[in-house]
């Protein structure tokens, strides 16, 4: 039973509220028709199964219903970070202790972020 | 009955309260505060069980969760039976009834022990694997015989009168174990104001302090325990859970605690004021940090016949004497490797019984306890060990000799001393079970001679649980580790004053596990390592000789530490023996790890209240009550309860499913029927890009669908396989109402959000589930228009309100949206009204429906009617491997849409282009009486040698009342080009059905009836 | 097009113009088994606030906040998992997700309110969906209310984690619901219609130990 920090609800929630949706950062090819069968097959069916740091897509199904990413260690099951759609992970196989650069915020993330509201 | 071993005074039992109990049919008495084990020992009951494999008589060895033998079957009535209860953990209550788990016909005279008498040769390790290997078909028979003989307890055959529940708990710090270390830790944390849970598996908190010889602040240790517990009980931020075992440590500090709430009171929960409390409770704890103060289990030494009743671990002797006022014998011999175990001999002597000798494996032991024993005149035999216990049903003596532990040799002449009790101590193994559940591998600590836990972040161990066995050091360690945990929580620790302990100086212990014998291990008397699973030192030696080198393999081959035992007493000894045989050290051999649960957990506590009519959610439509009142039989569709059919009573007999469905089908085809279709998923879609979005997630075109119109759509995954279907209505230029299958509703909603949030966040569109907001009532059949026109202001003229149009207006005075869509092939209207008004609309329909013989129908009729029309059900006729083209639904595929919609690319993959893909067709059985079996496999050539190539299967099959024969939908290889061919369906009973491949539209092939 | 006028968004008044009895999702249970009446031993009380107006608001927080302020006189809650209410406590807005809020008002107000909000929102990109028929609200009150919730939801309902003014969507028994705490003593549960009977039976079962009473 994982304890998962939802980056949108801004608090930890029980795993029962979430659904895992597989490997993160699988972008759909812009032009599917330009893909060979093999390339399309790779997109559809082939996923990494690393021993160590892995990036996964989850959804807070019983909660805010937002999709987000988790960086998880597949041996210790430790969750190193969770981050919103459009952000990049700080912990990667290349930088298991965390990269120095700040999270990169893309346009898409800025669009979906809640702006400050007057109380 | 006379409690012959009960002391006149001392202990924490209440002698004023005498309790009666029955064990193996005999009545005994004990006192409040006893465990069943202490009461049995008080009554001089030596044999509590027969061993699992060899059926040897067994007595009580320990005083806690590590007890391997005293597994009992609890319960005086059938419904209250509980198997595998440790007598050492069961509080005594008046009227308790228990039996030995093993032993056939009884524990005193056991036929199976003949097997044991034949010697180890008869049942070597791997005995079951080797003997009962073949033929495989006989295993079921072997198993019954073995199980009967072996006996593992039995579950009740009657309904449990008790209930169980769960409680979700959250805390900053969970402290497991309320001995001195846990109490010091909990007090430290409590004073910081953090949320603390302190749990302990025993009847009383206090752990080793309940039978301690030590003084705290110059007073008996229990006084300090009482003071600390008083303070903790006063703290709002502290939850105390006695009788609560931490059984499983799961991910991210999720720990399951099992609280026995009434098991000390009676065999079923007592009836309170109109309410019975739950018998036990699972606390599902999410902790910020966890502190393991789980203590240590004392290791017995492994010597010959060490399983004869009267052999105990040394600490248990102290516990029985000091905590329960029971001295389990008269003449004691203690065999030890350390100073601490000397307490057992001193406690024994204190109550006036004879200590024959202390046999110490060390040369010249010199600690303060040793000096005390010597001063009190106890004979201490140095550099020696008990080689072998004598006696059958009870220890009668011990053979003792000088040994060389290092060389594993007996060096002196053995002498036999008479005694009735042998206590042994080979050191202390930290209880690392919970830490191992986290996946952390324990490591060997040479100083404390035990495996200590490795800890993942957020877990702390203190005191004996990490090899710090000294009381004063343990108290300090508990406080220090709590401070460490609080620091991780960023909370300041509240200072506590640790009690003053007059620690006794202890000499070093020696590493010693298996005692050598004059004979080789394989020929000498049995030396038991794991008494619960009957694993001997010889078995382990044999396993290593047979080539098992990994300790994990040795464990599985010998069954050491299996089952409910989980290696509590025996694992380290077993590893030491394996290490000796392999010429390695213990850390080189390594340890096996433990799995949850630490001790057995009753299924009731696992299930909690999720049972019987609360087992799973039942989802009801707004019309559920009407359906119940009108005799509907229900079908489960996901969690929904949908009317399956509405049997009528004809001539005093209720219709069968087939009769009712035939009647309902004909009513719809010839008159008018009504269906509660409220369970269909409904999604409200708003936004300027709603139309664009639909075009991307559906295979067909949406660009030109005008307000007031409805379209059927197919939804594929990007692999081109159908995932769901349904109609979507254009409510406004930027506003659509999508319907999904009943079972697909939640999945489709998540699917739309997935694509919107991850791939196309730039599209301006919002999705909201409105499944529960609308009730959907389908009125269908040739008379549908006439009926509906009586209660609506909507113009139902066939030119004004065409097939695949929707209109809004009033139905039965309730605002409604009416959709002219058909899943039956007949004229049909789907009426959507706000669910709170559904019953009014439904009953108004019936008020007007009498003259049309309005017939309510259920899902079975719905299935038949749609199958007659060849309409698919996603998930029944499709299974994730079927494309729209396989279904022959190219008409619903927008090949030339500009955006590469989901599933499009996959339709041009080589695999999806194959000519021999399984394609949807109709099957007409040659014999009109035959209704094919759903799932039946299809072959082209019934004479082909087995295995026949299977070319498809039946996906839907019914009897069609209107057509007068069976119909089926099926997927068949290349089926679209095989119309008219005959296929064969060989059945399990040897029959082979023949069927003709036909179009999947059986009825009204031109589709005229829905357009009338 | 008969009675349909082309609009971008088609709103719909669901309530009839004449008196027709509406049924809450809990009708079935009440008729089948009845409900335990409150008594002196009752340590927790349950009551349904049936047939309220429930609207889902979707859109950008700033735009919606302004419109809601202008129409209702109070704004969106400022934080995730928060609840804002008008002075009388009859109308509330709960954060459900960064672009989604639940607005609950007295029954019958919802259609008019939707119209006013749409007017105030103009051309902005947003959605308003009436879900009044699809959910109902239960109130739970009493000293044992928190422990009853602990039996039912894995969400931490301790006041340190669940202060007044908070609201979350979470797991409850084997279903889910919206749980909120508008006042010190009162909890509110917003249930989906189809799960309401199951959840209600669960709550009565869990409340048996506290002599739960249902106030009608």
What does this structure look like?
The complex is a heterotrimer of chains A (about 120), B (about 1000) and C (about 220). Chain A is built from two helices and six strands. Chain A starts with a strand and ends in a 7-residue tail after the last helix. The longest helix of chain A is centred in the middle third of the chain and has 9 residues, at about 35-45. Chain A is an alpha+beta fold and about 120 residues long. Chain A has helices spanning about 35-45, 105-110, and strands at about 5, 10-15, 20-25, 55-60, 65-75, 80-85. Among the domains of chain B are: about 15-150, 2Fe-2S iron-sulphur cluster binding domain, sarcosine oxidase, alpha subunit, N-terminal domain (Ubiquitin-like (UB roll)), CATH 3.10.20.440; about 165-295 and about 430-490, FAD/NAD(P)-binding domain (3-Layer(bba) Sandwich), CATH 3.50.50.60; about 300-425, 3-Layer(bba) Sandwich (FAD/NAD(P)-binding domain); about 520-595, BFD-like [2Fe-2S]-binding domain (Arc Repressor Mutant, subunit A). Helix content of chain B is about 20%, strand content about 25%. Chain B starts with 13 loop residues before the first strand and ends in a 14-residue tail after the last strand. The mean pLDDT of chain B is about 95. Chain C is of the alpha+beta class. In chain C, about 25% of the residues lie in helices and about 30% in strands. Chain C has five helices and eleven strands; from the N terminus they run αββαβββαββαβββαβ. Chain C has a six-stranded mixed β-sheet, covered by helices on one side. In chain C, strands 3-4-5-2-6 form a five-stranded antiparallel β-sheet, with helices on one face. In chain C, α2 (about 60-70) packs across α3 (about 110-120). In chain C, about 50% of the residues are buried. At the B-C interface, β8, α17, β41, β43 and β44 of B face α1, β2, β6, α4 and α5 of C.
Shape, per Cα inertia axes of chain A: globular
Taking strands numbered 1, 2, ... along the chain, how are they ordered across the largest sheet of chain A?
3-4-5-6
Q: Tell me the distance between the termini of chain C.
A: 46 Å
How many separate domains make up the residues of chain C? 1
How many individual β-strands of chain A? 6
Number of helical segments with 4 or more residues of chain A: 2
Cα-atom Rg of chain C, whole angstroms? 18 Å
- Architecture of chain C, CATH level 2? 2-Layer Sandwich
Query: What is the percentage of strand-forming residues of chain A?
Result: 25-35%
Question: Structural class, from secondary structure content of chain C?
Answer: alpha+beta
Mean pLDDT of chain A: 87
């Amino acid at each position: 039973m994982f304890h998962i920090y939802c980056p949108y609800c801004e608090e930890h929630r029980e795993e029962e509220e979430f659904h895992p949706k597989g490997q993160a950062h699988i972008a759909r090819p812009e032009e599917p028709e330009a893909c060979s069968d093999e390339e399309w097959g790779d997109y559809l069916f082939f996923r990494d199964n690393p021993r160590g740091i892995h990036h996964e897509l989850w959804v807070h199904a019983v909660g805010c219903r937002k999709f987000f990413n988790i960086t998880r260690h597949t041996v210790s099951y430790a969750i190193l970070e969770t981050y919103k759609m459009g952000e990049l992970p700080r912990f990667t196989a290349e930088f298991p202790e965390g990269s120095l650069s700040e999270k990169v915020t893309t346009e898409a993330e800025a669009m979906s972020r809640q702006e400050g509201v007057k109380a | 009955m006379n409690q012959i071993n009960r002391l006149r005074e001392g202990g924490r039992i209440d002698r004023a309260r005498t309790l009666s109990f029955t064990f193996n049919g005999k009545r005994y008495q004990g006192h409040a505060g006893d465990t069943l084990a202490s009461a049995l020992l008080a009554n001089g009951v030596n044999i509590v069980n027969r061993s699992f494999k060899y059926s040897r008589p067994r007595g009580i060895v320990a005083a806690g969760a590590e007890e391997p033998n005293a597994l009992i079957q609890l319960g005086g009535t059938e419904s209250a039976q509980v198997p595998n209860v440790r007598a050492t953990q069961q509080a005594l209550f008046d009227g308790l009834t228990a039996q030995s788990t093993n032993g056939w016909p009884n524990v005193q005279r056991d036929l199976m022990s003949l097997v044991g008498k034949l010697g180890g040769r008869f049942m070597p390790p791997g005995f079951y694997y080797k003997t009962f290997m073949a033929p495989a078909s006989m295993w079921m028979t072997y198993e019954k015989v073995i199980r009967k003989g072996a006996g593992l307890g039995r579950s009740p055959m009657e309904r449990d009168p008790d209930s169980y529940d769960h409680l979700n708990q959250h805390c900053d710090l969970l402290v497991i174990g309320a001995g001195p270390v846990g109490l010091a830790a909990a007090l430290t944390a409590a004073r910081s104001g953090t949320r603390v849970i302190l749990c302990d598996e025993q009847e009383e908190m206090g752990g080793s302090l309940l039978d301690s010889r030590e003084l705290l602040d110059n007073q008996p240790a229990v006084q300090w325990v009482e003071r600390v517990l008083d303070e903790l009980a006063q703290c709002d931020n502290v939850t105390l859970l006695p009788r609560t075992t931490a059984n499983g440590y799961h991910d991210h500090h999720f720990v399951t605690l099992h609280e026995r709430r009434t098991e000390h009171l009676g065999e079923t929960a007592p009836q309170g004021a109109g309410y019975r409390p739950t018998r036990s409770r699972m606390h599902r704890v999410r902790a910020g940090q966890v502190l393991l103060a789980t203590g240590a289990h004392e290791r017995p030494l492994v010597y010959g016949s060490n399983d004869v009743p009267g052999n105990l671990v040394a600490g248990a002797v102290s516990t029985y004497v000091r905590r329960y006022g029971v001295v389990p014998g008269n003449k004691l011999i203690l065999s030890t490797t350390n100073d601490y175990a000397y307490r057992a001999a001193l406690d024994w002597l204190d109550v006036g019984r004879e200590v024959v000798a202390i046999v110490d494996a060390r040369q010249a032991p010199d600690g303060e306890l040793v000096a005390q024993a010597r001063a009190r005149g106890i004979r201490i035999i140095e550099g020696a060990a008990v080689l072998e216990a004598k006696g059958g049903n009870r220890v009668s003596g011990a053979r003792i000799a000088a040994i060389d532990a290092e060389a594993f040799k007996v060096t002196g002449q053995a002498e036999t001393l008479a005694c009735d009790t042998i206590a042994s101590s080979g050191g202390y193994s930290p209880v690392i079970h919970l830490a191992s559940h986290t996946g952390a591998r324990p490591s060997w600590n040479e100083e404390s001679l035990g495996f200590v836990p490795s800890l993942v972040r957020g877990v702390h161990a203190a005191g004996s649980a990490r090899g710090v066995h000294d009381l004063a050091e343990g108290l300090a360690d508990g406080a220090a580790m709590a401070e460490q945990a609080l620091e991780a929580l960023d909370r300041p620790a509240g200072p506590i004053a640790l009690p003053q302990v007059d620690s006794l100086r202890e000499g070093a212990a020696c590493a010693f596990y298996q005692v050598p014998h004059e004979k080789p291990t394989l020929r000498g008397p049995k030396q038991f390592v794991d008494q619960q699973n009957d694993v001997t030192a010889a078995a382990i030696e044999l396993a290593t000789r047979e080539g098992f080198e990994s300790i994990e393999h040795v464990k599985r081959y010998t069954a050491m530490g299996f089952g409910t035992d989980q290696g509590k007493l025996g694992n380290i000894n077993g590893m030491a023996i394996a290490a000796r045989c392999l010429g390695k050290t213990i850390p080189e051999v390594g340890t096996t790890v433990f799995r949850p649960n630490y001790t057995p957990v009753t299924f009731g506590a696992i299930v909690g209240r999720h049972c019987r009519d609360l087992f799973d959610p039942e989802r009801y439509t707004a019309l559920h009550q009407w359906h119940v009142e009108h005799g509907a039989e229900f079908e489960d569709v996901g969690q929904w309860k949908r009317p399956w059919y509405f049997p009528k009573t004809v001539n005093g007999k209720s219709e069968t499913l087939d009769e009712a469905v035939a009647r309902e089908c004909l009513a719809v085809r010839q008159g008018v029927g009504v269906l509660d279709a409220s369970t269909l998923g409904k999604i409200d879609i708003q936004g300027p890009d709603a139309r664009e979005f639909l075009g991307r997630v559906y295979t067909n075109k949406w660009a030109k669908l005008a307000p007031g119109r409805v379209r059927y759509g197919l939804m594929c995954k990007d692999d081109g396989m159908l995932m769901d279907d349904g109609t979507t209505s254009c409510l406004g230029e930027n506003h659509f109402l999508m319907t999904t299958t009943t079972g697909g509703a939640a999945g489709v909603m998540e699917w739309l959000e997935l694509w919107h949030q991850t791939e196309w966040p730039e599209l301006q569109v919002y999705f909201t589930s409105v499944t529960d907001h609308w009730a959907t009532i389908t009125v269908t059949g040739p008379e549908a228009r006439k009926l509906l026109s009586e209660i609506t202001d909507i113009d139902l003229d066939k030119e004004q309100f065409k097939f695949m149009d929707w209109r809004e207006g009033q139905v039965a005075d309730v605002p409604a949206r009416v959709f002219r869509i058909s899943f039956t092939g007949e004229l049909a209207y789907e009426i959507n009204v706000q669910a709170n008004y559904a019953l009014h609309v439904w009953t108004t329909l019936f008020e007007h429906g009498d003259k049309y013989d309005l017939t309510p129908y259920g899902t079975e009729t719905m299935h038949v009617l749609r199958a007659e029309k060849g309409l698919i059900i996603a998930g029944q006729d499709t299974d994730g491997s079927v494309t729209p083209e396989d279904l022959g639904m190219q008409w619903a595929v927008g090949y030339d849409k500009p955006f590469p919609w989901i599933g499009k690319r996959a339709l041009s993959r080589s695999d999806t282009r194959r000519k021999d893909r399984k394609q949807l067709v109709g099957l007409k059985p040659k014999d009109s009486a035959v209704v094919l079996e759903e799932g039946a496999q299809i072959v082209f050539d019934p004479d082909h040698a087995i295995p026949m190539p299977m070319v498809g299967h039946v996906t839907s099959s019914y009897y069609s009342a209107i057509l007068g024969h069976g119909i089926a939908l099926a997927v068949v290889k290349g089926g679209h080009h095989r119309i008219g061919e005959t296929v064969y369906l060989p059945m399990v009973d040897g029959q082979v059905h023949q069927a003709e491949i036909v179009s999947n539209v059986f009825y009204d092939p031109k589709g005229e009836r829905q357009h009338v | 097009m008969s009675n349909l006028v082309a609009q971008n968004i088609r709103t719909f008044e669901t309530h009839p113009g004449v008196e027709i009895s509406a049924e809450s999702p809990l009708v079935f249970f009440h008729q089948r088994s009845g409900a335990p009446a409150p008594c002196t031993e009752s340590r927790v009380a349950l009551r349904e606030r049936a047939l309220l107006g429930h609207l889902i608001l979707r859109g950008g927080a700033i735009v919606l906040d302004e419109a809601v302020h202008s129409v209702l006189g109070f704004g969106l809650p400022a934080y995730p998992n928060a609840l804002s209410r008008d002075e009388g406590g009859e109308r509330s807005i709960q954060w459900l997700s960064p672009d989604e809020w639940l607005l609950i008002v007295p029954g019958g107000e919802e259609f008019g309110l939707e119209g006013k909000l749409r007017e105030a929102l103009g051309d902005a990109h947003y959605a308003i969906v009436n879900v009044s028929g699809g959910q109902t609200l239960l109130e739970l009150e009493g000293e044992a209310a928190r422990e009853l919730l602990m039996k039912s939801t894995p969400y931490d309902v301790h006041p340190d984690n669940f202060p007044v003014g908070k609201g979350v969507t979470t797991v409850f028994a084997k279903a889910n619901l919206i749980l909120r705490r508008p006042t010190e003593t009162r909890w509110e549960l917003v249930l989906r219609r189809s799960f309401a009977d199951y959840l209600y039976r669960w709550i009565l079962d869990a409340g048996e130990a506290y002599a739960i009473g249902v106030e009608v």
